[in-house]
C-alpha cells in the first residue's frame, strides 16, 4: 500500500452524541450496528482525495481521533485527554440536535483542545453568548456536525436548526446536520459530502501548504 501523507482530525463532543457512529460512517461508509462508549480514544482512517478532479489531486489519509469522556470531567481526566490533542490539524465538533446542552458544550470542548484554558470556566453565560475573541486567532480548521436529525419531528425541525445555526457562525465553520444511521446524508455529490470534502481539503492545505498553523 502506498505511504500516503496524513493529517490528524479530532472528533469532539459530549458522550452519547454519536461520535463513534459518525466516525464509522465517515471511514467505512457503513452504519455502526452496536455503538458503545469510547474509553480513552479510538482512531479510524478515511482515505481522501484532495482537490479531486483537478490537476492538484492527491490522496491523503485522514486520521479521525474519536475522543471519549465528558466535558465536565475531573482535572485528572482532562490532563489524560490532553495527550490526544498534540499536533492536531483539524477538529470536528459533534453535538446532538435533540440535546441543547451538548451544543453549548462545544465551546468548552474546543477551548480544551486548543489549550486556551486548561479548565474552561465562564465561557457560557445565561443567554448562551460567549467571548468570540477566544477563537479569533484560531488557525485550526473546524467543522460542526449535528447528529440525530431523524429524531426531530418535522414540525420542530426548522426551529431546532435555526437555534443551532449560530454554532457554525461562532466557530467560523461550516455546518452539517445528519442521521448517522442513514448513509444517504453523506452520499457522493450531496451538499453535505461537498462540505465535508471542502473541510478536509482545508485541513490538508493548512498542514502541507500554508504552514501557518500550530502543527509542524
UniProtKB/TrEMBL annotation:
Keywords, comma-separated and alphabetical: GTP-binding, Nucleotide-binding
Tagged with keyword GTP-binding: yes
Entry keyword Nucleotide-binding: yes
GO molecular function terms listed in the Swiss-Prot or TrEMBL record: GTP binding
Alphabetized SMART domains for the sequence: RAB (SM00175)
Gene3D superfamilies in the record: P-loop containing nucleotide triphosphate hydrolases
Role summary: Required for KRAS signaling regulation and modulation of cell proliferation. Regulator of KRAS prenylation, and probably prenylation of other small GTPases. Required for lymphocyte development and function. Not required for myeloid cell development.
Protein name, per record: Rab-like protein 3
Organism listed in the record: Steatornis caripensis (Oilbird)
Gene: Rabl3
Amino acid at each position: 500500500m502506498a505511504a500516503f501523507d496524513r493529517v490528524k482530525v479530532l472528533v469532539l463532543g459530549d458522550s452519547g452524541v454519536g461520535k463513534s457512529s459518525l466516525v464509522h460512517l465517515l471511514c467505512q461508509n457503513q452504519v455502526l450496528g452496536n455503538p458503545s462508549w469510547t474509553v480513552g480514544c479510538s482512531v479510524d482512517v478515511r482515505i481522501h482525495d484532495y482537490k479531486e478532479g483537478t490537476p492538484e489531486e492527491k490522496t491523503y489519509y485522514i486520521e479521525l481521533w474519536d475522543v471519549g469522556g465528558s466535558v465536565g470531567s475531573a482535572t485528572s481526566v482532562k490532563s489524560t485527554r490532553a495527550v490526544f490533542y498534540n499536533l492536531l490539524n483539524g477538529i470536528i465538533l459533534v453535538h446532538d440536535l435533540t440535546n441543547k446542552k451538548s451544543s453549548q458544550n462545544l465551546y468548552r470542548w474546543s477551548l480544551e483542545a486548543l489549550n486556551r484554558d486548561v479548565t474552561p470556566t465562564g465561557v457560557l453565560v445565561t443567554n448562551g453568548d460567549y467571548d468570540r475573541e477566544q477563537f479569533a486567532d484560531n488557525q485550526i480548521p473546524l467543522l460542526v456536525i449535528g447528529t440525530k436529525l431523524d429524531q426531530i419531528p418535522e414540525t420542530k425541525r426548522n426551529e431546532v436548526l435555526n437555534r443551532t445555526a449560530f454554532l457554525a457562525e461562532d466557530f467560523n465553520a461550516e455546518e452539517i446536520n445528519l442521521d448517522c444511521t442513514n448513509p444517504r446524508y453523506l452520499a457522493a455529490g450531496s451538499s453535505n459530502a461537498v462540505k465535508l470534502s471542502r473541510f478536509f481539503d482545508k485541513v490538508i492545505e493548512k498542514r502541507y501548504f500554508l504552514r501557518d498553523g500550530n502543527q509542524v
